[in-house]
Design brief:
elongated; mainly alpha; about 725 residues; 6 strands; six-stranded mixed beta sheet; 39 helices; DNA-binding
Length: about 725
DNA sequence: CGGCAACTAA
């Protein structure tokens, strides 16, 4: 390529001027447009020098090579290298090291090594240059081997060498090697060098523990912002937000000015803690120093507000923002999705595409997550094809989100297909698959996946066991559940958290060991949560233990006096025990406290739109057809032997009104709509915001035989697959 | 002749 440029004839300039210009250009190391203009001009001058047959000395070469570092053009590097070879400059350590550096920037490690081997009199800098080249390009093993060769050759490392060696040790996760080189750095008094210090902090914060890093941090000079930012960032990333904020305060006391790096990191800590007041204070600081226009800082601010549930503030900041990137969009999408504003998240995604902003794997995984929340299978499938088109389906996080959406939309088989197709899986992939099977009540599949997982190099974590235990609890596998719980503690050294205990309480309770469930709650090292009392209450309903159930309900209401779900469960329990006076008193105290039972809401997707139905809904445009279908189903199921269970009504209703009350439950409306609107033979998928009621469960089992269709209902807890008169939950939910 | 830190997701 240089040769083709060499053919250019231009006005002659004195070599001194040319050299001066070359050196000037390399002064600005900024990348981008201006840089490439400078570089073209410089190449032009270089080429003319060559053309005119003027002396190309080592200074000219080092200058042009310095430029090539920022241009990252492998072709040019090779051309200049060839030129050097011809002129015999390759033996010069200065020129040789420059070319190593230029090759290193393009990732051409082998070419760099060739240039390194050509240097006859290697000095410490050329050794260091090559070690750095390996370390920067991720060839860590070679970096360390070359470092050892260098030492054998009698060369002492300097601060540059040490920083690269620490980087390579980090890359190989060789903490002990890092520690011994740290000793070497101490001996040579290089530990005070800012770059060595940063490399050490990087090493210890990632491989050792934060305490080692802290020791290093306390030793090194702290008048510069970088070590502070470094530690604050790491504390934030390690979820040690409090320490991050403390360090930020200490930094301010030391009169070191925070920059955009520092603010972005400390704001991340605010977000993790969801500390709105602190976030606002730091927001003021940001405004004061005028860093609010920095993308990283403004993204972090948007995230803080969204994590504190203040989406309005996030949206305002987003709309005011002058600098946006794809992360800005993602932050807002993720914020909406996490707060359950799925539609807003999806709308924003469409807007993002209209604005021609390219999505990333974060975009796709969070948008898929929003679809999973809505169980919008059709839309999810469309986005799935979009990820195939953009190749983001290869990203692990997107694959995980795809497993999740198919599982949560009721297509557990498709979830498995995605899982099998993934070329790389992480622990989240396995966890998602296990909890997917568990949600569907397919505990044997869930446990089989867990067995496979144990044969891989991936380590099971807390969430894996949560999936395994909930699989056991969903199907009442008492012995297995207990064995896994013990194994988790003993073989995997995982301390059970309250969610694990909740699974165990549900499992023990369901299996009829209510006394052991209570004992477990008493013995566990946590304050009982609402969830665990609710789990106990649910099992009390199954086993008709009214007194214990009442106790559990009181505990929930102590923690959360307005918990409507608990009132509903309590009423159900009294109804199951036929204690109608108590049902009435529960309803009275709800009335007194102004608590309304959350109305049952079911929804179903048809041709890309979601249709919602509440109890007794009459607002749907197809309502006449729907009621006609319900009428027909009522007749057919009665003939097939379905007997309505009026106890679930929990209210004093006139007898002739009772059947109608049951048939307008939201899931039946959605089901009737589904039967009208979906092709014969296809499965019908319905979602519900509450637990499916006992009578609907019985009716739908019967309907699945009458209409010969597979009916899938997802309620708050799990999936029910109805087919040929049975349900996958085995009537145990 | 050379190297450090930041925002989103699971």
């Amino acid at each position: 390529m240089v040769d083709s440029v060499l053919s250019f004839h231009g006005r002659w300039k004195s070599p001194r001027v040319m050299k001066h210009r070359l050196v000037q250009n390399q002064g600005s190391k900024s990348r981008g447009c201006a840089q490439s203009v400078n570089y073209l001009e410089a190449v032009d001058l270089f080429v003319r020098l060559h053309r005119e047959g003027l002396e190309l000395n080592s200074f000219v070469f080092t200058s042009i090579l310095k430029l090539l570092v920022s241009v990252e053009s492998g072709e040019f590097c090779r051309s200049v290298h060839a030129c050097l070879y011809k002129l015999g400059h390759r033996s010069n350590a200065f020129v040789g090291t420059s070319i190593i550096d230029a090759y290193s920037a393009c990732g051409l490690v082998d070419d760099a090594r060739e240039a390194f081997d050509e240097i006859i009199w290697k000095d410490m800098v050329s050794w260091t240059g090559m070690v750095t080249c390996y370390a920067e390009n991720g060839v860590f093993k070679e970096a360390l081997e070359l470092f050892s060769d260098m030492r054998m050759g009698g060369f002492w490392p300097n601060n540059f060498t040490l920083a690269s060696v620490f980087k390579a040790s980090l890359g190989l996760e060789a903490i002990n090697l890092g520690r011994s080189v740290h000793g070497c750095a101490l001996k040579m008094r290089y530990e005070l060098d800012p770059y060595v210090g940063a490399a050490l902090l990087d090493l210890y914060t990632k491989l050792g523990d934060m305490e080692d890093a802290k020791l290093v941090f306390e030793e090194i000079p702290k008048c510069d912002v970088i070590p502070w930012s470094f530690m604050i960032a790491r504390y934030s990333q390690h979820q040690r937000s409090k320490e991050a904020v403390e360090l930020f305060c200490r930094m301010r006391q030391s009169l070191v000015l925070p920059n955009h790096f520092t603010f972005a990191s400390v704001l991340q800590a605010c977000g993790t803690m969801a500390d709105l007041d602190l976030g606002k204070q730091i927001h003021c600081n940001v405004l004061k120093v005028g860093l609010d226009s920095n993308v990283f800082v403004s993204n972090a601010l948007i995230d803080v507000y969204s994590k504190c549930g203040k989406m309005e503030n996030s949206v305002d900041l987003f709309e005011e923002s002058t600098n946006r990137n794809e992360v800005t969009w993602n932050t807002l999408i993720v914020g909406h999705a996490q707060l359950g504003h799925e539609e807003k998240a999806l709308k924003l995604f469409l807007q993002m595409r209209e604005d021609n902003v390219q999505g990333t794997e974060v975009t796709y995984s969070s948008v898929l997550c929003a679809c999973a929340g809505l169980a919008a299978l059709k839309l999810g499938t469309e986005i799935h094809s979009l990820t195939i088109k953009t190749r983001f389906d290869k990203a692990i996080t997107v694959g995980n989100a795809l497993i999740d959406i198919y599982a949560k939309c009721g297509s557990i088989k498709d979830a498995r297909v995605v899982f099998e197709m993934m070329s790389n899986r992480d622990v989240v992939s396995w966890n998602t698959m296990i909890s997917g099977y568990s949600m569907h009540g397919l505990s044997s599949e869930a446990l089989r996946i867990f067995e496979y997982l144990q044969k891989t190099m991936i380590k099971a974590d807390k969430l894996t066991f949560l999936g395994v235990l909930s699989a056991c609890s969903n199907t009442g596998l008492l012995d297995k559940g207990q064995a896994y719980f013990t194994s988790m503690v003993h073989d995997y050294c995982i301390n059970p958290c309250i969610e694990h205990y909740t699974c165990m309480v549900a499992l023990l309770g369901r299996s009829g060991h209510l006394d052991r469930a209570v004992r477990l709650i008493e013995e566990m090292p946590f304050e009982p949560s609402i969830m665990i009392w609710r789990a106990l209450l649910t099992t009390c309903i199954i086993h008709n233990n009214v007194e214990l159930g009442k106790m559990a309900a009181l505990h929930v209401l102590e923690l959360e006096p307005h918990d409507e779900a608990t009132y509903a469960l309590l009423a159900n329990m009294y109804a199951a025990a036929r204690r109608w006076d108590d049902v009435a008193s529960v309803r009275n105290s709800m009335k007194k406290k102004g608590i309304k039972k959350e109305p049952g809401l079911s929804w179903i997707e048809s041709q890309g739109t979601v249709h919602y139905f509440v109890v007794g809904d009459a607002s749907h445009p197809d309502i006449r057809l729907i009621y006609g279908m319900l009428e027909w189903l009522n007749m057919k199921t009665k003939k097939a032997g379905y007997v309505p269970n009026y106890e679930v009504l929990l209210q004093d209703v006139e007898d002739d009104e009772k059947p109608r009350r049951l048939w307008v439950h939201s899931e039946r409306l959605a089901l009737a709509f589904g039967l009208i609107r979906t092709p014969f033979g296809s499965p019908i998928r319905i979602l519900k915001n509450l637990r499916i009621c006992l009578d609907c469960h019985a009716a739908i089992k019967c309907i699945s035989t009458v209409v010969q269709r597979e009916i899938v209902i997802r309620d708050v807890n799990r999936f029910h697959h109805f087919q040929n008169g049975t349900c996958s939950c085995g009537d145990y939910w």
